[in-house]
UniProtKB/TrEMBL annotation:
One of its GO terms (molecular function) is oxidoreductase activity, acting on the CH-OH group of donors, NAD or NADP as acceptor. This is Diaminohydroxyphosphoribosylaminopyrimidine deaminase. The keyword Oxidoreductase applies. It comes from the Bacteria. The keyword Oxidoreductase applies.
Amino acid sequence: MYEIDTSSPVLVTGATGYVAGWIVKVLLEAGVTVHAAVRDPSQTEKCRHLDEIAASAPGEIKYFKADLLDEGTYAEAMAGCSVVFHTASPFVIDVNDPQSELVDPAKLGTRNVLAQAGETPSVRRVVVTSSCAAIYGDNADIESTASGVFTEDDWNTTSSLTHNPYSYSKTEAEKEAWKIAGSQSQWELVTINPSLVMGPGLNPNATSESFNMIMQMGDGSQKRGTPDAGVGVVDVRDLAEAHVGAAYTPGATGRYIISAHDTTLLEMAATLLPKYGNDYPIPRRLLPKWLIWLVAPMVAPGITRKIVSRNFGYPWRGDSSRSVLELGVTYRPLAETMNDFFQQMVDSGRFGSS
């Protein structure tokens, strides 16, 4: 459906990140020269998994020092690039200062990267990693959608600095991206809006909320049960392919929901039971909503009673048909995603001994 252009380099911001690593892998294996923007290239341990891929791939990786909040910091890294993948943005739920820890890096970082794109004549397309968090704030928002399904036409209007600040930061960042894109005509913007990203990391010791979630399914944190939470899930490897498709598909435009499965936390855990159920305390039942509402503020920082009220007990449904029809994305089974991810945790010793 598309052909990857290897004649010019591309920039990947936050290149050592969970999603970015797989994007870099796809590009290197296609023969692309990747300009990897990282906070500190001298920390070679953080780049080792990318170096190992580059060593046996036809593509080449070059590292550049850059910081989301430093204006002009991406100039050298972006020089000569035809495509910019902007993936760098914090994914944490429990923060002390949402403005400085979430909104500023997400929004100002997007502004800095896209402003630099406008000053770099070689850039023709910018692919921004947004999120379904910019489409909805709470599962209860599904009741106000046009057809009972979240689509690319929906925007998150219910999050704020005090309620779902992570979702608010992703919304503000994507709005900023479209505002900047609309003020120029040199490059095209495509945004990728994944649901919950799961699946193995290229760096097995990475940290993100995704790793925390798979850990909690095996370390005993949820042995008494799991909340009745509807979620969309996508495999990180399929998400990487979607990014590359967004970069090189000639007619790609607008927003793309990237989501493979409308599921629940309990259904996700159930895919692990056949292989791991005898050895690990994987959750097998739902916790009552009233109980979670009662204890959440005391045992789960960042999970307020309002979040419990507006999310647990509601389904999640998203329409990702545009990604299949226009970007050619194929999605792998949920059990494959979950089992590959869990096995990585086992192999890397994250659970200790079972």
